[in-house]
Amino acid sequence: MRILFVASECVPLVKTGGLADVAGALPKALTRKGVDVRVLVPGYTGVMARMAEGKVVWRADDVFSRQAVVRRAPVDGLDVLALDIPEFYERDGLYVTRDGADWPDNPVRFASLAWVAASIARDGLEGGWRPDIVHAHDWQAALAPLYLKDWGVPDVASILTIHNMSYQGMCGADLRRDLKLPEAGFDAQGYEFYGQVNFLKAGLIHSDLVTTVSPTYARELESPDFGWGLEGVLAARQERAIGILNGIDTEMWDPMTDPAVPSFTTRSLSGRRSACKSLLNAFSIDADRPGPLFAVVSRLTDQKGLDLLLGILPDMLRNGGSLVLLGSGDRRLEEAFQTAARDHEGSVGVRIGYDEDLAHRIYAGADAILVPSRFEPCGLTQMYAMRYGALPVVARTGGLADTIIDANSAAISAGVATGFQFEPGSREAFANAIAKVFAVFSEPGLWRQMQRNAMRHPVGWDGPAERYVDLYARLMAAKEGQRRFSATM
Predict the structure, then answer these.
(1) How far is CA 305 from CA 302, 335, 394, in A?
(2) pLDDT tens-digit profile of 166-186?
């Protein structure tokens, strides 16, 4: 199988969120299963610094009025293809300016990525490599299936994976010609959405298969509360959305070998005590506070439900808990948490921004990780936390519901609980879950058992990768069947 991944970000080259983790880890898992995967990403400045010695394997003089080349090079176990169009990608910020506004040319920047992916599928790379399947990720790559259908490339299948339906990639109808979109498809049954071009809708309609990043999120997308206006499009698809739960790179996230933290295992958690002391020092938290050390590693947005945390924080601190937070995003939330840190010196510590090493240290040293999202397609934070023995406290939505076994009485009696769940969007339910955390924390034996349960819970890519291999095989068989049928007509 030859698979072309198309994504706007990819670890270890460039990252703003979970999409990058998936685009970096899933191809490695597929490669271990014998799949030939190449990952096409935009040639941002940081990407090209890693690709400077890459071999040119594709070129064109007119990609949306720009010269373009694709360079190929191995990067940390990945077979990377970088689309080098300096005018589009050599700038500060992947999607937004320093002021937080979308780059005004984002539609053409990411249409170019999709167009080149489709061109590689149609014509192949130098040396003859040509994919059997284009696997597009999120709106930035979602036009690739449309281009393939419009150009009539019948022997290459396409998959679109939805990582977050709330980001759809929309622009004015006047850009249709600039984006090389077929005029015939601009209607309610096509890529039109309330008078605008909708990249994600184009991918949903024209891809051969749609997947999303957890089974629960796949069901949620068919409801108006989560479909963001496209629930009808999904419902109209015979196969609808197939939910395959994400995994994480268990080699990168391994408390036994992680250079950022003291080594520990399920047999001996003593390294966590050292990690906790280091974390308390890093955030200037009083070491004698009696309650759990809670932590947040997140984008600061309303989706993540962190306004709910601000509402229950005083009670959490009064009961002896403490909080460390690493993240950035909404200026209002940044300022609110910074104010909380000033008002509660010694019990609340805040770092605005993102630091990968510090994130590892937080997972290794915190007692509980808070993920109160109003919706969460999959979520990787709770998986990182489990891997390091930090018990997740999560809203019961999307992949959070699929990955955490709630510490209810039945799960505790059976010895299988791995965290705490609560009804999303409810401050009262969140507060009740925190009260349960305090109760379990007061029983050290039970707390350690849950930590070990969490650390042993399977969170790697082997199972999900096997599901994708099966989907790829089914798609390729279907394409071959269509080809043979056409040949007899």
Answers:
(1) 5, 16, 10
(2) 999 999 999 999 999 999 999
Question: How big is the chain, counted in residues?
Answer: 489
If you average pLDDT over residues 212-232, what whole number do you get?
94
The pLDDT score that the predictor gives to residue 53 is 86
Q: Which of 120-134, 227-241, 353-367 has the lowest mean pLDDT?
A: 227-241
pLDDT score recorded for residue 423 = 98
Kindly state the average pLDDT of the residues 454-459: 97
Q: Are residues 201 and 280 in the same domain?
A: no
Same domain, 211 and 318: no
To which H or E segment does residue 80 belong? strand 78-84
Same domain, 450 and 468: no
- The verdict on residue 259 lying in a domain is no
CA-CA-CA-CA torsion sign (166, 172, 176, 178): negative
Identify the CATH number of the domain in which residue 427 sits: 3.40.50.2000
Average pLDDT, the chain: 95
Residue 261 lies in a domain: no
Range of the domain at 445: 270-456
Do residues 371 and 402 lie in contact, with contact meaning Cβ atoms separated by under 8 Å? no
Predicted confidence band of residue 487 (pLDDT cuts 50, 70, 90): low
Between 235 and 169, the more confident residue is 169
Helix (H, G, I), strand (E, B) or coil at 264: coil
265 domain residue, yes or no: no
Instruction: Name which of 162, 163, 150, 164 is nearest 119 in CA terms.
Output: 150
Instruction: Phi first, then psi: give them for residue 81, nearest 5 degrees.
Output: -115, 120
Domain count within the chain: 2
Strands in 368-371's sheet, in edge-to-edge order, are 348-352, 322-329, 293-300, 368-371, 391-395, 420-422
Asked if the model's pLDDT at residue 78 lies above 90, the reply is yes
Please determine, for residue 390, whether its predicted confidence score (pLDDT) is greater than 60.
yes
Distance CA 86, CA 106 (A): 14
- Shared domain for 219 and 330, answered yes or no, is no
Report how far apart the first and last C-alpha atoms of the chain are (Å, whole number): 27
Residues 169 and 221 in one domain: yes
ω before 12 within 30° of 0 (cis)?
Answer: yes
User: What is d(CA 454, CA 420) in angstroms, rounded to the nearest whole number?
Assistant: 11
